[in-house]
Amino acid sequence: MDVWNDEAMKQFQSLLETLDEQHKNTFQNMHQGYPRETLVRFLKARDGNVPKAHKMLIDCLQWRVENEIDNVLARPIPADSYRSVRDSQLMGMSGYTKEGLPVIAVGVGLSTYGKVSDKYYVQSHIQMNEYRDRVILPTATKNHGRYIGTCVKVLDMTGLRLSALNQMKLLTSISTIDDLNYPEKTDTYYIVNAPYVFSACWKVVKPLLQERTRKKVQVLQGCGKEELLKVMDYASLPHFCKDSSKLTKHNATMNAENCYSLDHVFHKQLYNYMKQQAMIMESISQIKQESFYVELPETDPDDAKIVKTIEIEFRRVESKNGLNNSLNGVAVRGL
Length: 335
Hints:
single chain; about 325 residues; alpha/beta; five-stranded mixed sheet; 13 helices; about 55% helix
């Protein structure tokens, strides 16, 4: 039985009849004309349990109201700080799948963070979520003549190393924000360029994940180009999945092809959109938009267990590599 059967949906919808005006307005911003599909996402996230799905949605709406998420796209990060964010929080959109789903690229291994305050990384992540949900997905839905409410993510593990643990608290907080407030927005996670340390961690973490999440993850060979070309055209591949020999060497053009770069068309459109929204908001309210801050949520106990497992496995692999390197050094010196 589907977790979103008609009886469950009717029960869920009836529970929402008592929403006040504030929560109704933010719900409209969430669903963008597709309330049923939005309720389905929350039902999926709570395995069809209507009371739990209802509580999750109410908590999400309250989070949106308290943090003024409806206005977050009218609060662009200052230009200098935004460039630092883009240089160190490697995310972008490279195109669309053949079915019309946005392709989000994430540089997991090479993201360094730490260049600006954590609040800007959180703000940028939420802004990308909201831009995806309020602009990208509605446009894709209109262009394809059918509802498109999810994306695919290509996670590049190049450069993944022990230092990633330094950002685990921030990354876990961002992941928790997604889990609680943007559930079931990713159709598939494609893992590419995975080093041994990822494979070792994945082996011990995979059993801890919900079956629903495990089914979404595909670990591809190398850069994953051949497999990804089955679901998207070459032009939509993230830059790190393309043949480096075919990429131009001209710096300006390389930046434009790099979907992480502020010079990429996606990030130009996103930042220009936010500046336009800020101007509109200020012209209406006659008040300059204040800085944006979201308090980081508490980590779910199950997620905390996964994080701890990752930390232990990371350190085990690094310790083993360090020992092997030392032994190799001794062997070389003995020759």
